């Protein structure tokens, strides 16, 4: 297993305290480790007795990198495991989707997504499989065009030659504002089979508090791109607002939605998402005493996170840090952190972009050294198989 750089400091007890934020440049380079107290729970019908009845993960966890699955990826961003085996990975700058054999590491370019216009933090970003993938073989993708960010779906036909396996994109949703920064980009189907998308505010802070704007939001829609039934603002795809740049979405074993969010200069956040709630940006960054704003469950000072993807496994949220170059574990008890977050892999593999459950105690983890803000070395970028506890 290749290590990109030596660890510059022993992971000390301070790394068990919650910390980490990200600068206004968002996807920046290297940091420390510590944590912040739990926020109040705003989940209705979640009394402390219910939370205490839930299984609580141990205060201390562990991470073991089992192997490097594949190397030499170009700006990997989205990652989607196929039920029949194989990992789909999107290239932000090339606009391609590649299938990786998770056993041999062999890479097969499935095709290029037409209309992708990579620039800054934009390009081909998140990907997700249709909830009916077994029958329809549809792949969803979020990407930046010359005019907006949009979500499309494409038929995957592995019987066709490499490079020609993606069908023509069917645009299901468009008009999400784009920018050189803060394009959001993470998409995921929830337990309700609705499609959720993190949409950044593009650097235009006012969008986040405007309920009619699509930027600075978490969006929820049907697989056809229509406002999902039960959304909080009537005939709108807006699910929550007051976000700066959400790039991580995951559900726990109680079907609660969690999201990671880039802060500006002070606090990055892990939030438990409630429909219709206001998460404060740009009026609040991190925790607030104002009950109008939903407080984060955990927050990190600048340089220790710049969080992108998150996944749920073994009772904890696992959060990939770009600038922080580490994998954070946030153990949960209901809608609160049950112990201080822990940092793992600090500085060993560089910037970490996406983390996805591989089932049980395993995760898939991608690096992000070729995104223009890293220091790529031999083999970058790569997918790692990780065992967590």
UniProtKB/TrEMBL annotation:
Region Disordered, residue ranges: 22-62, 367-389
UniProtKB keywords: Signal
Signal peptide (from-to): 1-20
Comp. bias intervals (Basic and acidic residues): 378-389
Residue stretches of biased makeup (Polar residues): 39-54
Record-linked Gene3D superfamilies: TolB, C-terminal domain
Pfam family, one: GSDH
Residue ranges constituting the Glucose/Sorbosone dehydrogenase domain according to the UniProt record: 73-373
Alphabetized InterPro entries for the sequence: 6-blade_b-propeller_TolB-like, Glc/Sorbosone_DH, Quinoprot_gluc/sorb_DH_b-prop
PANTHER family (alphabetical): HEDGEHOG-INTERACTING PROTEIN, HIPL1 PROTEIN
Annotated protein name in UniProt: PQQ-dependent sugar dehydrogenase
